[in-house]
Request: fold
Amino acid sequence: SGLAEARAAAGVDVRKGRRVVAILPLESLRPDPDHAWMGNSFADAMAMGLVQREDLVVLDRLKVVEVMQRLGEKPGEAPRAVSELGRALNAELMVLGSYQVTGDHARLTVRVIDAALGTTRKQFQVDRPLADLLKLEDELQARLAKELGVAEGGGAIHQAKDPRTRELLARAETILTEGNQDSLQVARNFFKSALDLEPDYAPAQAGMAWVLAETGSMLALNQARFQDAQNV
Reply:
């Protein structure tokens, strides 16, 4: 399947002299089911500000989660062994963050960690009203790129017009980490709802295409297994 191919390719050295950056799922300091989706949304926003750079490799969030789980780390919590996680991800830099929603405000703290040394290179904080959630994500994109010294250049950043679209996208991508057929269907519904709100939103279009392809692969595999069983 597409996911299997991506995971197999993860062992290939794609650095070619570039810095590898891993953005970890953000930690919620005040866990709340209504705001749990924000951690992935904020992480994706920061990644969007870096992926167009030719001097960086930004690891896919699903890959980061997979490695964390394999090491016994809990995505959404601060890692216990930063250097070990950095080696497993083959990353030079790791971006850690935490957020909390208090009343009608969201506050984020972001740290850029030297994975080998475990030292903090950069740290900054962003605080905005929840009503300005999309502006907050814009600020995260720009601020992280600036702190890493890559503020200039880059390509088009696909920004949602409605914060509900970002929420639906984040929920879809979160459920995909479960990696089973039921999660594909739930994620498909989230992607569809996001596209109902904004039909031209490219990240949701890409997510829907990936889900459809992965669903087709699973159906084909299940059909092949059924036929093999019939031949026994």
